[in-house]
Amino acid sequence: MGLGPLQKTIIDCRKCDFRPYLTTVDNYYKMRTGHEARQHTLKGHDTSHALLETANCIRTYLDKGENVLGFYLDLKKAFDTVDHKILLAKLYCYGIRVYARDFTCLSSDPLIESSAPSHLFGVGRDQPPIKFERYSPNGELKELTDGNQTMLANDIERMEIPPGTGHHTDTRTGVFACTSSTNGSAQILIINHRKHSNVLPDGYVTKTASVGDTVTLQVISRSNKIKWRHNGRKVLQWKGRASVTLYNVSTDDEGIYEAYTCLHKPHAYIRLIVRRCPLNFVGHQCNDHCVCYNGGVCTDEGKCICPPGFAGALCDRVRGPDCFGEDCQFSCSDQPLSKEGFEGSCGGELFCLPDPYGCSCYPGFHGLGCTEECEPGTFGADCLQTCHCSEGSICDNKMGTCSPAICEEGWTGENCNERISCRHEPCLNGGTCETNFGFEGYNCNCPVGFIGSNCELIDSSACASAPCQNDGNCSVQLNGSYTCSCAIGYEGNQCEAEINECESQPCLNGGICTDLLGGFTCDCPEEVRGTFCEQINYCECQLWGNSHYHTFDGNFFTFQGDCEYVVSEHSHEDAALSGLPVYSLIVRQHKERPDDQVTRLSFLQFEFEGTIYKLQHGGLYVDGVQGIPLTWCKILTTYFGLVLQLDGHTLDLSLPLHTEIM
């Protein structure tokens, strides 16, 4: 058991001493019901005791003047172990009213034309014994004593009403009540008429309206001497009128309306139910939203009471065409509920459910006798629902399902009876949904670049205003926006800005950048070349043939001496000033014969950071050890840019220009 107190001070039932009250409670139960208080439990599961203790605890606090507004009981375990009717009966005795949502009262003869007895049925899951009552002319309900009540099954009770014995009396007609005898909140009113009465309702026996609505009550009669009563009181101003209209109705207007020409002849009965909140609004302040589909009706608490054949919290689940009950667990095809001529359906029977639903025919039928089938294009209880199948689909005139199952645009659901709303999240591409006034339909607020009822279309007009400047090309994107493909030299969302190509400083080594439309130029220093001034001009010293020299400064010499020459040198003193490493390049020439007029290269020696590289006939020697044969290749490259290259006849020595040669 769990309690949920409805006040600031929490009720602690552990403070109650229940033992003195158990006998008193059972005696109280016997006094109210005339039965012994029996405890039907499984071994080791005395849930009846727990229930009685809880009820006593609540009653104790009530006796002390505490403001106990309500409480909640978790009865799952109790319903597994205790006889259900005994449990509900005890709850009723202790002042606990259980709302029986899954409770139906139906008439198999809503429009009587034979002399056979009529039948009322009380059907509901785990219902206590049903009490059948008759609505009296003074507006009161009196126990129906002239009928024969039978328990047909665990969940079905039948009241057989014989025809009256008097000349003008037919006890089968009028307003009746099916009441759970141990559950005062589960009372359902049901209405029977006689087919050949001289006054009958023109339409439906119950009307459900909301506060502020306009309601018309209308009857058909061959007489113009019609009189009206409301809850047993005469309404003199309506005398002689077959149709009356109630404007701006309130809860004071609900009840039973009778139209008659003679008190001793059958009357026409119309019951008006008025919800205390406007249409689609519920809650204590009537500011909560509620919508039920397929003809379902919202209670003031925001729950949907579904027509027979439909189920679900919003009545959006199709369960028919021949069953009823909250889970469609009762079938009209089974005895004793089947009716001749309506096999496989629930036609010819009037179904009445807890308020504010009232009474209706089963889906697919209408009329006072619930025998007339729905016209094409309509379906549902009393044929009040409109089909919303797509063109070419066939609509079932009972449950509204489409074959093939394709809905009309703007509708969805198992039978296409749900108008697409914000709860279906219809707005695409980031659109926001707003529910229309009255909670029927919606509007999508589309982001820039999208149009359509669901923001599903790309707004092709995005480029209509030619937003791209400077000869840029505009194109619409999948997200509905536009992009500009800019001409060379321009940038920006609308190609509004000229690109400054020099801003990225592309020119190297002291080059000066000049911005052009779509490009740039670099003005390089004299010793540098390349588009970006990236290539530094190198000075070369070349030796070839009979000791001819091109030096670093561009001069040309021919040495014929038989000696060594220092071609390039960077001494320790030089290195201290420049930060470059120490190196030297020496060449040795000789005469092959004493009388030769020219000298020839004997070897080339390059010393770098303490290592001696010597090139002579036979190959390259490193610190006196032969390395590789002489070929055309880069012999040595240093980290500061010196490159030594030899092909066997010509030697090239390259140095960066900024290297100072002493």
Descriptors:
662 residues, 3 domains, 6-stranded antiparallel sheet
Describe the structure.
This protein is mainly β and 662 residues long. The protein folds into 3 domains: 13-93, no CATH class; 103-383, Tie2 ligand-binding domain superfamily (Tie2 ligand-binding domain fold, Beta Complex), CATH 2.170.300.10; 538-655, no CATH class. Helices cover 8% and strands 35% of the residues. It contains 5 helices and 59 strands. A 6-stranded antiparallel β-sheet has the order 6-7-3-1-26-27, with no helix packed on it. A hairpin with a 5-residue loop joins strand 22 and strand 23. The chain is rod-shaped, with a radius of gyration of 52 Å. Residues 1-48 and 658-662 have low confidence and may be disordered.
Brief overview:
With 662 residues, this protein is mainly β.
Tell me the β content: 35-45%
Instruction: Tell the overall outline.
Output: rod-shaped
**Which architecture name of the largest domain does CATH use?**
Beta Complex
CATH class of the largest domain: Mainly Beta
Number of helical segments?
Answer: 5
What level of helicity do the residues show? under 10%
Distance between the termini: 106 Å
In total, the number of domains comes to 3
Q: What's the story with the biggest beta sheet?
A: 6 strands, antiparallel
Q: Given the helix and strand composition, which structural class is it? A: mainly beta
Which regions have little confidence, pLDDT < 50, spanning 5+ residues?
1-48, 658-662
> Widest sheet: strand order?
6-7-3-1-26-27
Q: What multimeric state do the chains show? A: single chain
Rg, Cα atoms, Å:
52 Å
Please name the CATH topology of the largest domain.
Tie2 ligand-binding domain fold
CATH superfamily of the largest domain: Tie2 ligand-binding domain superfamily
Provide mean pLDDT, rounded: 78
InterPro entries: EGF, EGF-like_Ca-bd_dom, EGF-like_CS, EGF-type_Asp/Asn_hydroxyl_site, EGF_Ca-bd_CS, Ig-like_dom_sf, Ig-like_fold, VWF_type-D
Domain VWFD: 539-662
Disulfide bonds: 306-315, 427-444, 446-455, 486-495, 524-533
GO molecular function: calcium ion binding
